[in-house]
């Protein structure tokens, strides 16, 4: 056998193909990634929207995968671009996650608000996460074909390390100057949402990944919380 053939055999042995992992809400992976109804006129909007990564933005979770080298290829049958790990297993984004990012980048209301996009993850595979964020594409939804990468969407607002996510948000607040009350957070783990909510952040639990309903619930909860605070302030002022 040639040296090239020996190397190919060695690679297959090191990274055998496995049965693909399936997301809890696997059917949501095949939903179309389209822009949804825009926020209502005059609706209070967050100044920062933050997403967890594993099983919120994508699935499988990175610890389940073989990791680098990551590759990107186009499926011959569907034409869809796929991000693959070293074993050939696909890392898939929840369509609602990319749709949410597209709306945050393209809708005039969020542009006027100056809404920023951030990531807060407890993964210990930060290098992998950073690389694959640069492979996933977010369409701006305008029909112009303009796209950007997920990594470009979040810029430098990326916090990835172990420990309570309160620490992640403390750093995001210090970096942006945005109050916790003006932040919205999506995560698939209840402990994370409970911890971060104690800071005053509006949190949405999305078990099984981002969905359109989770997005709508998040915007609604944020607006209702802002309205409640405004009513309480008005009532307190009236008593003076």
UniProtKB/TrEMBL annotation:
Feature: compositional bias, Basic residues: 11-22
Taxonomy of the source species: Eukaryota, Viridiplantae, Chlorophyta, Mamiellophyceae, Mamiellales
The organism's place on the tree of life at top rank: Eukaryota
Pfam families membership: Acid_PPase (PF12689)
Protein name, entry field: Magnesium-dependent phosphatase-1
Region Disordered: start-end pairs: 1-29
Gene3D superfamilies reported for this sequence: HAD superfamily/HAD-like
GO MF, any single term: acid phosphatase activity
Signal peptide: none
């Amino acid at each position: 056998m040639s040296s090239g053939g020996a190397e190919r055999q060695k690679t297959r042995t090191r990274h055998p193909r496995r049965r693909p992992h399936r997301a809890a809400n696997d059917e949501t992976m095949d939903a179309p990634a389209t822009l949804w109804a825009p926020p209502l006129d005059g609706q209070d909007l967050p100044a920062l929207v933050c997403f967890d990564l594993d099983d919120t933005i994508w699935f499988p979770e990175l610890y389940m995968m073989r990791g680098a080298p990551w590759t990107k290829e186009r499926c011959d049958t569907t034409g869809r671009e796929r991000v693959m790990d070293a074993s050939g297993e696909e890392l898939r984004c929840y369509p609602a996650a990319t749709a949410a990012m597209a709306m945050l980048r393209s809708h005039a209301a969020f542009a006027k608000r100056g809404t920023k996009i951030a990531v807060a993850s407890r993964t210990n595979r930060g290098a992998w996460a950073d690389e694959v964020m640069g492979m996933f594409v977010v369409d701006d939804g305008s029909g112009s074909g303009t796209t950007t990468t997920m990594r470009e969407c979040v810029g430098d607002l990326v916090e990835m390390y172990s420990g309570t996510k309160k620490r992640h948000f403390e750093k995001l607040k210090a970096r942006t100057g945005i109050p916790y009350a003006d932040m919205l957070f999506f995560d698939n783990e209840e402990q994370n949402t409970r911890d971060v909510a104690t800071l005053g952040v509006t949190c949405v639990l999305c078990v099984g990944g981002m969905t359109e309903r989770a997005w709508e619930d998040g915007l609604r909860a944020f607006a209702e919380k802002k309205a409640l605070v405004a009513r309480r302030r008005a009532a307190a002022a009236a008593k003076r």
